[in-house]
Amino acid sequence: MRGFDEKLLAILKTETEMEKRLKASEEERRMFSEQMKEAANHTKREKYERFHDKIAIGRMMRYIPWAPHKNDMIQTSYVVSGCLKMMIGNEKITVYPGEFIIPGQDTYVSSEALGEDDIVINFLMRPEFLEEMLIKMRADNKMADFLMSSFRKNARWNSYLHFKDLDDLAVFNLAEAVIYDAFPYLNDDNIMDGVSPDTQVTATVISAMYLALARNISSIETDKATSPQKELADVVEDYIQNHYSDATLSALAAMLNQSESALSKQIKKTFGMTFKDLLIDRRFEQAEKLLRNARLSVYEVAVSVGYENTSFFYRKFKEQYGISPNAFRRKHGLK
Questions:
Q1: What pLDDT sits at residue 40?
Q2: CA distances from 108 to 43, 103, 193, 232, 271 (A)
Q3: pLDDT tens, residue by residue, 191-241
Q4: Are 321 and 42 in contact (CB under 8 A)?
Q5: What does DSSP say about strands 74-81 and 160-163: parallel, antiparallel, or unpaired?
Q6: How far is CA 96 from the centre of its chain?
Q7: Which of 113, 174, 209, 248 could form a disulfide with 65 if both were Cys (CB 3.0 to 4.6 A apart)?
Q8: Cβ contact 275:249 at 8 Å
Q9: DSSP 8-state assignment for residue 61
Q10: Strand 160-163 to 119-125 pairing
């Protein structure tokens, strides 16, 4: 790769006010981490509504680890300097300068805290932008296949593409161009919220960057999870996907001829989440769809996803989204 522009790198290394507090105080790091966990639970898929456009470019906040979370957008991370140490499923991955990594859309991802010299840029895309971009890729392209799988939400539990040993100046020139446009300066707002300075220009340049990445097939490293892990993940996800309304750990354990405690530990190790948390995620994904699109009462929605106790459903829904089911429906449902 060619050397990164020094002037742009200096901007990206700017320490924001939040980063200064995080760097100086363990208590600030603890509080910030708790806020991020709470925000992820409350807002779920709505957390990206602040992105007014189909794409956004952000720089990862330093000095704070990111807890396991499920990717709800297509995210491409580009390491400008230092490194990014992350977990995808239970696989440890280190991404070095000049490398790109794209986790699958429904993949569970976490990362260690970035240090002062670790600069990572995230390119975030809504699914509809991905759909438009895929039209421009060849159907037999490995990257197109991966992205289409992610778009259809049937990618494996720890699926990812990791571009290493890239020697394509077009990729770096295009990435640098869009970053330069996004960050004439850097502060807490454009780190946390991401920016898309000119939607049409940004979309065009990012599309070109992905097309350039896609031609570097030899540089792709895909997930290396062992077959037993993949098989377990596939079975668990398929079971929850199809039996979310009445799924139980005991029933799944009996189906797999395992003890509940042993299966519980395997699931936590594989996904970084408990069976209960996975089930709650799936139930509320379905509840969200029903509240948006179906003419069902809230009680009927609750029962259909496995909660006959409406009060419990109301409480858990508010924990996940920060608002009641009725308020969610008024905001997002049928008019």
A1: 59
A2: 17, 8, 21, 15, 7
A3: 877 787 787 888 888 888 988 888 887 777 766 554 556 778 888 988 999
A4: yes
A5: unpaired
A6: 19
A7: 113
A8: yes
A9: P
A10: unpaired
